[in-house]
User: Which sequence fits this backbone?
């Protein structure tokens, strides 16, 4: 019977092409707008590292002593001295230090202008803990960290820019006035959201290159506006060593803890450290240390803004408006088929048969509307990608789950909003229609 009802639906399309086209167009417009905004919001809300998001923690230590009651709020950055004092506990499986600088980069073997680039400064554990894939080479080792070697890891995009996509491992890149040796080139890497840095860059591409954090310190590369730097207390002197010894909070620290026991042990360790510092006059506001896992971090930092959520709800309202208009078209279409319904009822079709026939017809219309809506959504995502070029392109791509969900949604909403027209059509009395024939 289903194939028979599908055949009747196709015949109905030919008989009422304008009304059928309007129904498909209304459904497609609503679905296209909704799925455009929902796709971006959905991709933004994904678990960036599902294999270990419950084992990676942001280390937050409130060392402020400004006398202000900050309540439950704290900063995601800590001071350089606190980072140095807690990273050698031996408790975490991995620890990752995060900062950033900017500099001019160029290939010294080419007569090209240097390009201002973003530099992620970190340590060797970064590539292991965040499971970064490599196209060529690998990350640097702990020895490079300890010796503050001038080594560098490129993203695939940077390698294409400076070395035309060739294997650049072992070659040199001019970093400001110095030369840094390439040890690895990252493959395509889409850690979305990019939670480990500042939240304003959570949906942008990774920084152009990576160098050891200790190399930044050794070469006195001052942080700029690529990191959050909170100095609640002024410091004496204007040299780099004074900055490192200050109460400025600018270093991000992430740790990987294998289980709850390790987490409790590390929490006790940083609490004990904070108490020792308090005894020496620091941490005078309070002792408030937190280990925040990735999912909780994304929620607390509001990585997915309320604006994107509001856009989804507005598009849903637009979909409802489209479907209400579509319902009116359905009423007109089914009213025009009253004679056909009366004739079918007269020859033995039950109300259930009429409901089934029109439900299949609306499902087919919804499916076609969903297909057209997918095309419109792709145009919408392409427009959003051009408009918000600073966002990572992966946010504007629908996966298989979203594609199937779009088609299912289109069928469901068309059938749901068609319940009233179908019900009214099924109430048609054969006698009243046969008299008019």
Assistant:
């Amino acid at each position: 019977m289903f194939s028979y009802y599908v055949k009747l639906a196709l015949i109905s399309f030919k008989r009422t092409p304008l009304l059928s086209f309007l129904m498909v167009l209304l459904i497609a417009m609503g679905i296209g707008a909704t799925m455009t905004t929902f796709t971006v919001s959905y991709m933004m809300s994904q678990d960036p590292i599902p294999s270990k998001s419950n084992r990676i923690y942001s280390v937050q230590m409130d060392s402020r002593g400004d006398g202000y009651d900050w309540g439950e709020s704290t900063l995601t950055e800590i001071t350089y001295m606190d980072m140095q004092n807690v990273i050698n506990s031996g408790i975490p499986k991995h620890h990752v230090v995060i900062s950033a600088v900017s500099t001019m980069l160029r290939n010294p073997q080419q007569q090209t202008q240097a390009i201002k680039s973003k530099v992620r400064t970190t340590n060797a554990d970064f590539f292991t803990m965040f499971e970064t894939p490599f196209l060529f080479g690998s990350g640097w080792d702990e020895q490079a960290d300890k010796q503050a070697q001038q080594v560098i890891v490129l993203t695939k995009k940077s390698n294409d820019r400076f070395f035309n996509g060739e294997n650049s491992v072992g070659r040199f890149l001019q970093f400001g006035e110095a030369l840094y040796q390439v040890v690895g080139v990252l493959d395509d890497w889409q850690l979305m959201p990019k939670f480990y840095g500042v939240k304003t860059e959570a949906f942008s591409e990774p920084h152009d290159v990576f160098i050891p954090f200790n190399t930044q310190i050794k070469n006195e590369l001052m942080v700029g506006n690529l990191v959050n730097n909170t100095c609640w207390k002024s410091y004496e002197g204007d040299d780099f060593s004074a900055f490192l010894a200050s109460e400025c909070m600018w270093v991000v620290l992430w740790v990987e803890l294998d289980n709850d026991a390790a987490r409790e042990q590390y929490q006790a360790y940083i609490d004990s450290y904070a108490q020792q510092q308090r005894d020496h006059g620091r941490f005078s506001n309070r002792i408030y240390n937190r280990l925040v896992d990735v999912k909780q971090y994304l929620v607390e930092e509001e990585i997915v803004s309320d604006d994107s959520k509001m856009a989804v709800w507005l598009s849903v309202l637009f979909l409802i408006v489209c479907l209400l208009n579509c319902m009116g078209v359905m009423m007109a279409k089914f009213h025009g088929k009253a004679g056909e319904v009366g004739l079918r009822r007269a020859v033995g079709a039950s109300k259930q048969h009429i409901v089934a026939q029109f439900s299949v017809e609306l499902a087919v219309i919804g499916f076609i509307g969903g297909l057209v809506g997918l095309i419109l959504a792709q145009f919408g995502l392409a427009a959003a990608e051009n408009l918000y070029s600073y966002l990572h392109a992966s946010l504007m791509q629908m996966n298989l789950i979203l594609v199937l969900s779009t088609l299912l949604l289109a069928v469901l909403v068309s059938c749901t909003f068609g319940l009233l027209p179908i019900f009214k059509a099924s109430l048609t009395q054969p006698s009243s229609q046969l008299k008019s024939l």
